[in-house]
Amino acid sequence: MKSAKEREEFGGGKQGVILCPVCKAAYYKKSWHHDIAHFAGKEDMPVNFLLCPADQMIKDKQYEGKVVVKNVSGETEIEVANLIKNIGFSAFEKEPMHRLISIEKVKGELVVLTTENQLAVSMAKKVGEAYKKAKVKISFAKEPNDVAIAVVEF
Ligand SMILES: [Zn+2]
User: Fold this and answer.
1) Could you tell me the distance, in angstroms and rounded to a whole number, from the CA of residue 143 to the centre of ligand 1?
2) pTM, entire model
3) Distance CA 98, CA 106 (A)
4) How far is the CA of 34 from the centre of ligand 1 (A)?
5) 65 C-alpha vs ligand 1 centroid, how far in Å?
């Protein structure tokens, strides 16, 4: 398992552009961008098609962040789910590799998976700030990689 840092330095800064066939993110200047439109490289640069780290992670059914929201239902549940989706969307806007993978109701709990551990942490903290009665507990699982697990209990 590669570290987040290694994944971000995808391709070891090799020449050319990498395009993800799934999300159309483009890798150049050592980071991922939403599209290739602003790429001001040489026209003869090679373009390689390769899954980006976020889509690779999703394909492999892996995740780096998990938020579990307990004892939430009705209106509050809808609001919390929308808040989490909005945080996920703005994270993705800023950084194409930071994504909300899924948000599902599992055995009465809202389970949220993200491609990046700090994204899960910030989702949980923002839910905690929005709802005073919600208690937030964050832990990190060392193995197999730095998965953050944030539990929000209403
Ligand atoms: Zn992609």
Assistant:
1) 25
2) 0.85
3) 23
4) 9
5) 18
